[in-house]
Design a protein that fits this description.
There is one protein chain. By secondary structure, the chain is of the alpha/beta class. The protein folds into two domains: 127 residues, Rossmann fold (3-Layer(aba) Sandwich); 69 residues. The protein is built from eleven helices and seven strands. It is globular.
């Protein structure tokens, strides 16, 4: 029986747009194009998400490696909450319905400690019964350990959970530890696939 629904944060509960953020504040298109990959790349994102050192130290290290973009990096740091633009359309209403149906709702996100600035901005996070944040655990999806910490922290059985994430590799990570998942596109697609899985395996 499915009892617990697990949600990634970015691109599932809330939306963000790094490139639009930088374009808005860096009017020189060529400079913006050169700068964006300094922060918006997989390696840097993993460093932030794992946060083995404080964010402030990570920022200073990136500045040391990219002195020509110091002003832009500091602007990014100071205006970080503006990168997250809104709740994903339809998701708050859907979570309210699912909660009313009796499902427990949990978050599982790769995000640095600045996530709390975002969580304070959007009411959708108040609907969660608990969450695991990679920067607090020092492990990231799709590593098996972060899923196990979710299960252990909230006493969940993986076969009673369905995980939603916009990245297929994170869904596969969940499946390897026994949790079914849905690669998220939008609220309507997610609910359609969720109902199929629930009806196929049994609900609460």
């Amino acid at each position: 029986m499915i009892k617990n629904l697990i949600f990634d944060f970015g691109k599932v509960l809330v939306d963000y747009d790094f490139e639009a953020f930088f374009r808005r504040y860096i009017t020189d298109e060529e400079r913006c194009r050169a700068f964006t990959p300094v922060l918006h790349n997989v390696e840097v994102q993993r460093i932030f998400d794992r946060e083995e050192r404080p964010v402030e130290e990570i920022i200073e290290e990136i500045i040391c490696q990219n002195r020509e973009f110091e002003a832009e990096i500091r602007f990014f740091d100071e205006h970080y909450p503006e990168i997250v633009t809104n709740e994903v359309e339809g998701m708050r209403e859907l979570l309210i319905r699912l909660k009313a149906e009796g499902y427990k709702l949990y978050g599982l996100t790769n995000w640095c400690s600045k996530v709390y600035l975002t969580m304070a901005q959007f009411e959708i996070f108040n609907l969660l019964d608990g969450y695991i944040i990679s920067s607090e655990e020092k492990v990231i999806k799709p590593e098996a350990e972060i899923y196990h910490r979710l299960f252990n922290r909230f006493n969940l059985k993986p076969e009673e959970c369905i995980f939603a994430d916009d990245r297929a590799e994170n869904i596969e990570g969940g499946r390897r530890v026994g949790m079914e998942g849905i690669v998220f596109t939008d609220a309507r697609q997610y609910e359609r696939e969720l109902r199929i899985l629930i009806n196929g395996r049994g609900s609460k």
